[in-house]
Amino acid sequence: MGISLQKVSFHYTKNQSKDGINNLDLIINEGDFLCICGATGSGKSTLVAHLNALLLPQSGSLKIDEYSIPFKRSFNINLLRQKVGLSFQFPEYQLFANSVLADCMFGPLNFKFSKEQAQSSALRVLELLKISDLKDQSPLELSGGQMRKVAIAGIMASNPQYLVFDEPTRGLDQKASQELLQLFYQLNQEKQQTIIAITHDMDFVAKYASRVIVLKEGEIVFNGSKEELFESHNFSNFGLDYPSTIKVLKYLSQETGLVFKPLYQVAEVLEYLQEKA
Ligand SMILES: Nc1ncnc2c1ncn2[C@@H]1O[C@H](COP(=O)(O)OP(=O)(O)O)[C@@H](O)[C@H]1O
Ligand SMILES: [Mg+2]
Question: What angle do CA 230, 203, 197 make, to 5 degrees?
C-alpha cells in the first residue's frame, strides 16, 4: 500500500519555520529504494522520525499502509513501530545485551513474538547478514562494522515492512559500507523490501536508488529518478556532489574531448570507454 505524507510540518521552535520540516507531500511506494539527500540541517532526520511516529506532525497527516497519523487515542503505536524499522545514525550505540543473539531478540520480544519466534527470526537475520558466527559474543567486543551490522540485524529481526536508515554507512570503512549496501540492494531486488535511506554518498545513490528526494531548509526541492537528479539544470542548487562516474566522465570530456554521456555504473563507463577507444 505504501506511505504517504500530506502537508506534514514539524518545527522544533515555536514561530520558527526554518527548522524541522515544512509542508511535505511525499509518496513512498512499496518496493522503492528511496534515497533522501540534502545538506546538514535540511530536515532529513526530522522527516524519517515521522515514519515510525517518533515525532508526530504538528500539522498535516501521514498514512502508513492501513494506519493513519494523527491516530486515535486507543491506537497501539507498536503496530506501527513494527511495520517501520528505523535505524538511527550510529545505531550500535544502542547495543546493550550480553550477547549478539540476545540483542537481536530484544526487538521481536518487545513486539510480542514468542521466544521461539524471536530466536528463529534473529538467527535468520544474522545468517542473512553473514554474522551468525558472532551470535554468542558480547556486542561490545566487536569491530565497528560488525556492531553496525548487529544493530541493523536487531531492527530487521522484527520483520519490518519498511526499513529506514539514517546514514547507514557513516563512519564505516569502504569494505563494510559496500557489504551493507549490497545487502540492502539484494533485499530490495530479490525480496521487494522497501528501503528508505538518508545518505550523503552520491555513489550509493547512483548505484542503488530507484528514487531520490532532496530536502533544502525543510522542503522537498527535488523528487525523481537519479538520472533526473544528476542531469537537472538545478543541480548546483541542491548542495550535493556528483557521483564518481560523472566526475570521471566530465574530466575526460574536458581533458580529452570525449563526448560526455551520463553513466552511473562503473561497468557502463568501462564499456563506453572501450567503445570510444
Ligand atoms: N532537537 C532539536 N531542537 C531544535 N532544533 C532542532 C532539533 N533537531 C533538529 N533541529 C533543527 O531542525 C533542522 C533540521 O534538522 P535535521 O532534521 O536533524 O536535519 P538533517 O538530518 O538534514 O541534518 C535543523 O535546522 C536543526 O538545527
Ligand atoms: Mg540528520
Answer: 90
Q: Sheet of 21-28: strands edge to edge? A: 21-28, 3-10, 59-64, 67-69
Exposure on the CB side of residue 138, measured as CA atoms within 13 A: 4
Phi, then psi, of 10 in degrees rounded to 5: -150, 120
Q: Report all structural domains of the chain as residue ranges with CATH numbers, in order of start.
A: 3-241 (3.40.50.300), 242-277 (no CATH)
Q: State CA 173 to chain mean position distance.
A: 18
Any bridge partners for residue 8, and if so which?
24
CB 125 within 8 A of CB 113: no
Q: From the CA of 47, give the closest atom in ligand 1.
A: 17
For the CA of 215, the nearest atom of ligand 1:
22
Nearest-CA residue for ligand 1 atom 18 is 45
Alpha helix positions (H), the chain: 44-51, 77-83, 100-110, 115-128, 144-156, 174-191, 202-208, 226-230, 244-256, 266-276
Q: pLDDT tens digits, residue range 239-263?
A: 999 999 999 999 999 999 999 999 9
**What is the pTM assigned to this prediction?**
0.95
Q: What is the pLDDT of residues 83-115, one digit of tens each?
A: 999 999 899 988 989 999 999 999 999 999 999
CA-CA distance, 171 to 131, in Å (whole number)?
19
CA 131 / ligand 1 centre spacing (Å): 34
